[in-house]
Amino acid sequence: MRRLFWLAMGITIGALVVRKLSRAAERMTPAGIGGSIAEGLRELADAIGDFGADIRAAMAERELELRAGTGLDAPLPESGQVQLPGRHSVADR
Fold first, then answer.
1. Does pTM surpass 0.90?
2. Mean pLDDT throughout 58-68?
3. For the chain, what are the domain ranges?
4. Do the Cβ atoms of 36 and 27 come closer than 8 Å?
5. Which of 5, 25, 3 minimizes the C-alpha distance to 13?
């Protein structure tokens, strides 16, 4: 009975080792390496896209802050309300 147990244990371990080595050998083939590189490039592209989206969101937020701070979003004055330096309005003459 003990011999049968150890025989079954050896076969099981052997099968697991063969499966593990087969997977490792498959990854070392040109197709496996190409797949790994393609997956890495996809992940890199996703990370760059996320980074770009974060940058655009922060840029839009900062632009709103700058516009609010400088008054660029304020309504334009009417033509009679603007007086340029060095010029007198018609009413002053």
1. no
2. 93
3. 2-68
4. yes
5. 5
Q: Given the structure tokens 């190409």, which residue do they identify?
A: 34
Spatial neighbors of 33 by CB under 8 A, at least 6 apart, are 27
56, two tokens: 């655009």
Q: Kindly report the average pLDDT of the chain as a whole number.
A: 86
What would the pLDDT profile of 7-20 be if each residue is shown by its tens digit?
Answer: 999 999 999 999 99
Determine the average pLDDT of the residues in 12-38: 91
Give the residue with greater pLDDT, 91 vs 70.
70
- 66 in Cβ contact with 60 (< 8 Å): no
- For CA atoms 8, 12, 18, 19, the dihedral sign is positive
> CB 35: neighbour CB atoms within 10 A?
13
Which amino acid is located at 28 in the chain? M
For the chain, how many residues are written?
A: 93
